[in-house]
């Protein structure tokens, strides 16, 4: 790895801006020491989430409007919390993709403006790589298989030769999207997040496991069929008809429980398959769905069976945030990477393995 | 508004946005011109020009041409949303604004 001038500095600081879905996050990170393995300190991590009413999802136009409305407020808070001067900031990082078009662009416009006003280089970051790098930094996991699960993404990833390679993924929708859309069928609140509320409601279930289609296909999985069936059952329940395998009417809690148990078991299976391929017994779970304690528990049981363990971060880092963009962006910047303003577009599709991970061997 | 019926983009609108100085107009220009228009039925041209009686390019000129008035309206509204964001960032997060707040914070 070439040592750039900035990498020689004792303290390197980046501001990161994230807005690919409904969370607007801005954070400031500090790197010290060897750029190949820096000591990372979170100086600030501020987030504001756009929550839509129960029964609805967040649409691109409204989400972009939210991000534009809150950007300055969140940025000011991030700078104040970090307590650093502009002269100490080395670069401005932003999410290039993947994600929703209008929200991504709304944040990019603001990030470009900051970079130009402050005279700092801009660094475009892959959202998935941001999650992975933050997970590695926080947990210290050595050579894990990464399960990246969120409302927008579901991938099983392992690092090999400067790429985060996708071993398995969803063939249709993300697991978080399945959960979020199911929440609408039961008009579950989206505050703080639909998945969180499903998790709490599921804890009241457990009496019965309803039959939902289990769709693992080799290394990959599929969630749209399960969603359709779960929505059908929800409609039956609302019409007063649904009866479980024990002949008793089932509740929303039973549905939430059954859905979680089924989709999480699928994720555990494809993760285990990748672990067997790669010869790893560590699992790092990143992405918003990674906050789910039942998923962590099920994954932990599987990993323990294989003599390994599960690493997960808390909601500050698993839920979309700006600090992961600052961290991954600074890692790239320290290897000499930056994004000229005229090339700082956003893209809805940006494969995790498109990024050359120059900062690792 | 000027029309250009021969080229298929008969609906047009030009905005001249004055900035306090050429630097800020240039920052806005560079930030806004990166993203392409989403529709092929809309054409946009951005430039920094001088105000009347001046030689300093302190005015951001935004020229839109579209196939229909509806497309023109949608595109211009979207541009104005982005422009408003750029202006707010310039006002509150430019170097002088940030340093001033930091100095005030320290003096407490």
From TrEMBL, chain A:
Top EC class of this enzyme? transferase
- Tell me where it resides: Cytoplasm; Nucleus
Alphabetically ordered keywords of this record? Acyltransferase, Cytoplasm, Metal-binding, Nucleus, Transferase, tRNA processing
- Report whether Nucleus shows up as a keyword of the record: yes
- Provide the residue positions that the database annotates as binding substrate: 148-152, 180, 195, 199, 292
Q: What does the record give as the reaction this protein catalyses?
A: L-threonylcarbamoyladenylate + adenosine(37) in tRNA = N(6)-L-threonylcarbamoyladenosine(37) in tRNA + AMP + H(+)
UniProt binding sites for a divalent metal cation: 127, 131, 148, 320
**Family according to the record:** Belongs to the KAE1 / TsaD family.
Protein name (record): N(6)-L-threonylcarbamoyladenine synthase
Species whose genome carries this gene: Corynascus novoguineensis
Automatic annotation (TrEMBL), chain B:
Q: Which residues form a coiled coil?
A: none
Q: Name one Pfam family in it.
A: Pcc1
In terms of InterPro entries, this protein maps to: CTAG/Pcc1
Domain of life, source organism: Eukaryota
Its GO CC terms are: EKC/KEOPS complex
What are its GO biological-process terms?
A: tRNA threonylcarbamoyladenosine metabolic process
Question: What is the similarity comment for this entry?
Answer: Belongs to the CTAG/PCC1 family.
Which PANTHER family does this chain map to? EKC/KEOPS COMPLEX SUBUNIT PCC1 FAMILY MEMBER (PTHR31283), EKC_KEOPS COMPLEX SUBUNIT LAGE3 (PTHR31283:SF5)
Q: What is this protein called?
A: Transcription factor Pcc1-domain-containing protein
Organism encoding this protein: Corynascus novoguineensis
Name the lineage: Eukaryota, Fungi, Dikarya, Ascomycota, Pezizomycotina
């Amino acid at each position: 790895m070439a040592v750039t001038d900035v990498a020689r500095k004792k303290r390197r600081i980046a501001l990161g801006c994230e807005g690919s879905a409904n969370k607007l996050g801005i954070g400031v990170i500090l790197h010290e020491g060897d750029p190949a393995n820096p000591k990372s300190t979170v100086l600030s991590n501020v987030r504001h989430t756009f929550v839509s009413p129960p029964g609805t999802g967040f649409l691109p136009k409204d989400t972009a409007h939210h991000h534009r409305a809150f950007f300055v407020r969140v940025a000011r808070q991030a700078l104040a919390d970090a307590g650093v001067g502009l002269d100490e900031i080395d670069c401005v990082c932003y999410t290039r993709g993947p994600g929703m078009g209008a929200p991504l662009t709304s944040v990019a416009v603001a990030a470009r403006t900051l970079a130009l006003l402050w005279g700092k280089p801009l660094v475009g970051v892959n959202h998935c790589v941001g999650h992975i790098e933050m997970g590695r930094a926080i947990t210290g996991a050595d050579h894990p298989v990464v399960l990246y699960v969120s409302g927008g993404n579901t991938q099983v990833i392992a690092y090999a030769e400067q790429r985060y390679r996708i071993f398995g993924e969803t063939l249709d929708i993300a697991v978080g999207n399945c959960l979020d859309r199911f929440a609408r069928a039961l008009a579950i609140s989206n505050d703080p997040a639909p998945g969180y509320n499903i998790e709490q409601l599921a804890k009241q279930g457990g009496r019965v496991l309803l039959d939902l289609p289990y769709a693992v296909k080799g290394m990959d999985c599929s969630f749209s069929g399960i969603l359709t069936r779960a929505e059908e059952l929800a409609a039956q329940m609302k019409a007063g008809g649904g009866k479980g395998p024990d002949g008793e009417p089932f509740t929303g809690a039973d549905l939430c429980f059954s859905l979680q148990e089924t989709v999480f078991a699928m994720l555990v299976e494809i993760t285990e398959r990748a672990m067997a391929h790669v010869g790893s017994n560590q699992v790092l779970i990143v992405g918003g769905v990674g906050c789910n304690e039942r998923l962590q528990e099920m994954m932990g049981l599987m990993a323990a069976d294989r003599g390994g363990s599960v690493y997960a971060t808390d909601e500050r880092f698993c839920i979309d945030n700006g600090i992961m963009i600052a961290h991954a962006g600074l890692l790239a910047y320290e290897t000499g990477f930056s994004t000229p303003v005229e090339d700082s577009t956003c893209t809805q599709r940006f494969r995790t393995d498109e990024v050359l991970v120059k900062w690792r061997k | 508004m000027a029309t250009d019926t021969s080229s298929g983009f008969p609906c047009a609108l030009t905005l001249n946005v004055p900035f306090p100085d050429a630097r800020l107009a240039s920052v806005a220009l560079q930030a806004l011109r990166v993203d392409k228009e989403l529709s092929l039925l809309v054409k946009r041209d951005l430039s920094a020009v001088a105000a009347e009686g001046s030689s300093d390019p302190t005015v951001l000129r935004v020229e839109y041409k579209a196939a229909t008035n509806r497309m023109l309206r949608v595109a211009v509204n979207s541009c104005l949303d982005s422009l408003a964001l750029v202006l707010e960032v310039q006002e509150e997060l430019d170097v002088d604004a940030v340093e001033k707040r930091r100095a005030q914070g320290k003096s407490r």
